[in-house]
Amino acid sequence: MRETTLEIVAPAKWGEGLVSVAEGERIFVDVRLESVHEGILATGEADTEYTGVCGRCLRDIAEPLKVEFQELFAYPGVEATDFEVQDDHVDLETPVRDAIVLSLPFQPVCEPDCPGLDPATGERFTESTGSEPAAPIDPRWAALQDYTQDHDDDAPRPVPGS
To answer: Distance (Å, rounded) from C-alpha 21 to C-alpha 49?
Structure first.
């Protein structure tokens, strides 16, 4: 068994959604390599940072990411496997990349209660003022918005059809 710590840089952008690990981003990998009957078992953790934009307000975000991975690298033989030991070495790039990309959030947010964007103006909502924003009025009913009644609210109203 061998334990080692590696510091590598992402050779390319990892991820295709709103957030990704940028090319050149540092990745710290702690890995334990164990010799087993079938090959070499690699177990470890990778620490890095992803960057991108919030899925609600489009603000730039950068968050740390820590993932675990485990992969069996089989000795070359009759059976075809995804990962093989080659010249007594294992290539950890694919399992580390897969673990990182699969751990990236699909809909990242800058904060858990991010209010997002105003659909009418496209501007970011600011701190909540405690009141609900007015609902948009259907244009067919907009003329009634300016309608004022000539009598008091307490006065009896005529019943239609009487």
So the answer is: 7
